[in-house]
Amino acid sequence: MARNRGLTGQSIALVAVFAGLIAASTLVPEVTLIGGVPLTLQTFAIVLTGLLLGPWRALAAVSLYLVLGLVGAPIFANGAAGLVVLTGPTGGYLIGFVLAATVIGALAQLLARRGVLARRGTATASLIGIGLLSIPLVYAVGVPWLVWRTGMPMLPTGCSSITDIDCVSGLTVGVLPFIPGDILKVVVAGIVAAAIHRAYPGLLGSARRASSRVTDPEDEAARATA
Amino acid sequence: MISLLGIYRPKRTALHLAPVWFKMLLLVGVSITSIAVSDPVTSIGITAACLLLLASTLPPLKATLKGMGAIILIAALTTVFQVLRGDYVRALDLAGDIVSVAALALAVSSSTSMGAMLDFVTTLARPLRWLLPPESIGVMVSLTLRAIPEAAQILTESRVAARARGMDRSPRAILIPSASRTVGFALQLGQALHARGIAEHGRAARIEPRQVTEDDAPPPVLAEPPVREMPRTEEEAPVRPGSRRERRR
Questions:
Q1: Which CA distances in Å does A15 have to A44, A66, A145, B37, B213?
Q2: Which residues constitute the domain of residue A206?
Q3: CB contact under 8 A, B193 and A13
Q4: Domain locations in chain B?
Q5: What is the pLDDT of residues B168-210, one digit of tens each?
Q6: Residues 166-195 of A with CB under 8 A from B
Q7: Segment A147-204, tens digit of pLDDT
Q8: Smallest CA–CA separation between B138 and chain A, in Å?
Q9: What is the pLDDT, as a whole number, of residue A100?
Q10: Which of A10, A173, B172, B237 is buried most, with the most CB atoms less than 10 Å from its CB?
């Protein structure tokens, strides 16, 4: 079964290292783009994990990151740690990360099995397309949580000017300010993921054809080196 | 730069001595209560109790203020928003909910070591052991803790390298080498794990019992990939490792 096969040393190492990458992405200072726009790396790391690892390993990696953060390692955004982050108003985004990484991981694996990722022209565009799906998925969990914990209305009602109190809503506070940055991060993650899939074609199990010389399909060592 | 201590400090207060399941139960209970009850007086009472509990664990001041700071800011903004809408009762209730749960969560964090929390999580995950053996959880957690500084170093080094080429404003120049080296590191780590047979208990444990009853062979050495447990021909059998791997254990 896929579960048993998933518990190989290679999968465990990938899960652990990508959980570490997500954690490290909140610790290193952000990348400054041209024009001085800071690019925090957490969303990038989550999307990259999904695109590179496939559904189960991405689910495991993001969950492992969350568990480590919840038990007290200060690896959430801004050095926060512990249960306070999950129970707080922004905790829903963290749950959304798990969902998003799993779903885009499943789609990326589908693409890999179809052989789309092997073609250079389509790989980047399709990976970016999948990655963009992660944005509504994160907000689908995060915004209702935020709205519920802070008592804001979900949609702005009768909003006329920016200083109008009616403009404060889940959509205007919890979604719109972050959308441009999110799209940028997903595009970068898609480009990076396409490059990594070119460099390591076996990551999503698509190397089965490429490594046909390996006689024993159960030999993970051969597949890991393929 | 990277401290993994968090807010926990070893002390001997009442909450430090309380069992982890009790603290988690308390947190879940208070969360549900504070959300279900929309009476501002009760809400403020719960908040005061939670803040007292937090103080009773004698948390480190700076880390606590940092942890509470963002939450208090959000609570304040929520309150202002609700007051501006003219809903004072709801303002108090919501602010109380946010602050009380946050204070209690911090109290639990500051009184429970990471090891104790991880043990608790592993216990919770025990019904899932057909999917995720507890040994694998332990391996993954310790590997992740090791991988955090490694990944941070890779990110930092890639940035320095990009800057040296005058491309420190280009995300591609920083992130593609970072991701590539991270995956490479993971694959090397995976091969090292595979070579040592670490984290292969899952399947080995499921295959093992039947085999042991069939022949009187010793249980498979951990350092052996499970696929090779059944040699197909007699020629392969003597290759089974003996003393060298035994000695290493």
A1: 16, 13, 27, 40, 35
A2: 7-150+161-225
A3: yes
A4: 14-124, 126-196
A5: 778 888 889 999 999 999 999 988 888 887 766 544 444 444 4
A6: 168, 188, 191-193, 195
A7: 877 777 776 666 655 555 666 666 777 777 788 888 888 998 999 998 888 888 878 7
A8: 11
A9: 92
A10: A10
B174's tokens? 């920083």
Does pLDDT of B107 surpass 90? no
The number of folded domains in chain A is 1
Contact A84 B71 (CB under 8 A): yes
CA distance A223 to B233: 23
| Three-state SS annotation for A101-130 | HHHHHHHHHHHHHHCHHHCHHHHHHHHHHH
A212 in reach of chain B (CB within 8 A): no
Single-letter code of the amino acid located at B153: Q
CA A80, CA B71: separation in Å to the nearest integer? 11
Closest CA to A94 of A39, A155, A42: A42
Distance (Å, whole) CA B99 – CA B96: 5
Token pair for A152: 């804001």
DSSP readout, B77-97? HHHHHHHHTT-HHHHHHHHHH
| CATH classification of the domain holding A38 | 1.10.1760.20
| R_g over Cα of chain A | 19
